[in-house]
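pls design
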């Protein structure tokens, strides 16, 4: 088998950074506040204001955010309905919280979790539904939210 050249590779995770982003990073590096610090606080304040909530917490990754969200929901020992079409960290966050991932099938056209399959998977042990918007296609959230409310 012939090795794949860089010209034929499709980058999955290639950030788009320009001079504006790089200049902001230079400023942060100059202060020495690489983790938490004034820029993080500024971001949290602006973000919480933008989405209309009292508090926001910036984290280093979506994995950490999912882990924390499930921790707050106290899912330990429960089931979390999710999709198999996701990065492995989605399901790691469930396992980190000692919960059980339950996979619902996906929609053929969008590859997002299918609400009809979510309904089939709900049990007395279900504590949460974790969706992932796949490949730039948003899940149809209204029926998913309605289902979550119906079953608490």
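designed seq:
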């Amino acid at each position: 088998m012939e090795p794949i050249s860089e010209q034929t590779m499709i980058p999955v995770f290639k950030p788009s950074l320009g001079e504006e982003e790089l200049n902001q990073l230079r400023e942060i590096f100059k202060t020495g506040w690489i983790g938490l610090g004034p820029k993080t606080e500024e971001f949290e304040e602006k973000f919480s204001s933008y989405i209309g909530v009292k508090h926001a917490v910036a984290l280093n990754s979506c994995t950490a955010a999912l882990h924390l969200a499930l921790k707050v929901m106290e899912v330990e020992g429960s089931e979390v309905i999710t999709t198999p079409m996701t990065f492995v960290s989605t399901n790691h966050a469930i396992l980190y919280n000692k919960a059980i991932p339950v996979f619902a099938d996906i929609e053929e056209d969008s590859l997002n979790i299918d609400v009809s399959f979510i309904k089939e998977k709900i049990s007395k042990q279900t504590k949460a539904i974790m969706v992932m918007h796949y490949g730039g296609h948003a899940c149809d959230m209204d029926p998913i939210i309605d289902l979550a409310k119906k079953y608490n």
